């Protein structure tokens, strides 16, 4: 199995005072669908930002078996908790084609890939519209399409269900289940995660408190209670 | 039509440069009003335009008051600031962004400056969205703006705009970095 993401003793604090993450080590391999759970303020989003290099943390981060570089980051798709600032072009189609065109992909292939991604999330019919004109749920789906358009090997999502209604959540879970790529999803929506993750990593107050097989975690209500998840 | 709109936008920027260099009070005031009205007609929403202009107008008013207190005289700085806002808002509305995006290749030397203008446009939109949100929240929380605490709340509400815009700008930059746009 090829290692996709390795964190080694990752620690982060604001101004060196308040510790947000404390020596977190984890290892995710190819094809794994991992849920990162924890109550509000547990450090899930911060951990993802540190792993992506958006916050400078102590410790080592390796992607695809090597130290994280701009080149290796190209194979990582990211969907933020607030997708409203991920997309800024005059239309969804332009937003999705931009990173491909930027990498030298011909316009025809880039537009075909963009259409395919938008179709997967059910937004192909409104590809001409600007992200700002969409509902929050549609923006979230558009951000997912934007992450998928570059054919990433690792997809990282932060609270993907935060603005979605029940039906959209089920559709998103089905979509993520069907994807043949490695997933790391931070969420406290256990019902959503239960439908497709194979492994659960739990955080509490900036510390890694457990790494469980999904079946064990979702059956243990007492554990979920201790982590303030139910 | 798109070419005409682009030319009009470019002409507006040129006119703005001339106005800033040579305009007197009457010319500047007339230009600001004309540009604001044209922008309102283009958006077809007077209320929205007024709400969007409120923070800039307040900023200009405070600037003028501070200038008056500090120097006991008033220059055209505040008025010029508002003229910039009104004319550039109209110009941005005129630019056919979709057509331009498709006609400029990312490999072209014009792409980086074009992307820069798109970023500026996006940040302007962020500022406008956050202004609307802050003022809507203020209106709901403070039923009588001229009673006790009303003005203080408005000041805090406008002050919060800066931190909110900063957070959104940070998120935006992070997202574009990860998408490889800033490479």
Shape of chain A: globular
In percent, how helical is the residue content of chain A? Answer: 25-40%
Instruction: Please give the order of strands in the largest beta sheet of chain A.
Output: 6-7-8-3-9-10
- The SSE order of chain A reads EEEHEEHEHHHEHEHEEHH
Percent of residues of chain B in beta strands? under 5%
Q: How does this model look, in words?
A:
The complex is a heterodimer of chains A (230) and B (183). With 230 residues, chain A is of the alpha/beta class. Helices cover 35% and strands 28% of the residues of chain A. Chain A has a domain at 1-75 and 152-160 and 189-230: 3-Layer(aba) Sandwich (Rossmann fold), CATH 3.40.50.300. In chain A, strands 6-7-8-3-9-10 form a six-stranded mixed sheet, with helices on both faces. In chain A, strands 2-1-4-5 form a four-stranded antiparallel sheet, covered by helices on one side. In chain A, strand 9 (199-204) and strand 10 form a beta hairpin. Chain B is an all-alpha fold and 183 residues long. Chain B has two domains: 1-98, no CATH class; 104-183, no CATH class. Chain B has seven helices and no strands. The interface between A and B is medium-sized, with 27 and 24 residues.
């Amino acid at each position: 199995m090829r290692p996709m993401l390795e964190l080694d003793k990752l620690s982060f604090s604001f101004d060196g005072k308040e510790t947000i993450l404390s020596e977190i080590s984890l290892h995710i391999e190819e094809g794994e669908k991992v849920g990162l759970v924890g109550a509000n303020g547990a450090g899930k989003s911060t951990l993802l930002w540190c792993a992506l290099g958006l916050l400078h943390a102590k410790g080592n981060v390796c992607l695809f078996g090597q130290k994280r570089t701009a080149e290796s980051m190209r194979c990582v798709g990211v969907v933020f908790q607030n997708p409203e600032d991920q997309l800024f072009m005059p239309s969804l189609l332009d937003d999705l084609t931009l990173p491909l065109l930027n990498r030298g992909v011909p316009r025809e292939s880039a537009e075909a890939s963009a259409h395919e991604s938008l179709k997967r999330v059910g937004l192909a019919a409104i590809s001409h519209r600007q992200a700002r004109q969409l509902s929050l749920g549609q923006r979230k789906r558009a951000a997912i399409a934007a992450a998928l358009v570059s054919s990433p090997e690792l997809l990282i999502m932060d609270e993907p269900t935060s603005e979605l209604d029940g039906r959209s959540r089920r559709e998103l879970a089905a979509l993520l289940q069907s994807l043949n790529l490695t997933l790391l999803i931070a969420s406290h929506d256990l019902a959503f995660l239960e439908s497709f993750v194979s492994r659960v990593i739990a955080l509490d107050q900036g510390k890694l408190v457990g790494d469980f097989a999904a079946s064990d975690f979702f059956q243990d209500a007492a554990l979920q209670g201790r982590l303030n998840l139910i | 039509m798109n070419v005409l709109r682009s030319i009009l936008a470019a002409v507006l920027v040129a006119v703005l440069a001339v106005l800033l260099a040579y305009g007197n009070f009457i010319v500047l005031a007339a230009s600001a009003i004309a540009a604001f009205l044209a922008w309102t007609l283009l958006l077809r929403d007077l209320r929205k335009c007024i709400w969007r202009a409120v923070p800039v107008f307040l900023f200009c008013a405070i600037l003028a008051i501070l200038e008056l207190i500090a120097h006991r005289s008033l220059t055209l700085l505040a008025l010029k600031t508002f003229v910039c806002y009104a004319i550039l808002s109209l110009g941005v509305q005129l630019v056919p962004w979709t057509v331009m995006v498709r006609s400029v290749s990312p490999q072209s030397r014009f792409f980086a400056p074009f992307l820069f203008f798109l970023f500026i446009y996006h940040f302007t939109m962020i500022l406008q969205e956050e202004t609307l949100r802050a003022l809507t929240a203020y209106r709901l929380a403070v039923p009588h703006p001229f009673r006790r605490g009303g003005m203080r709340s408005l000041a805090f509400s406008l002050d919060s705009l800066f931190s909110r815009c900063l957070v959104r700008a940070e998120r935006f930059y992070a997202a574009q970095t990860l998408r490889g746009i800033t490479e």
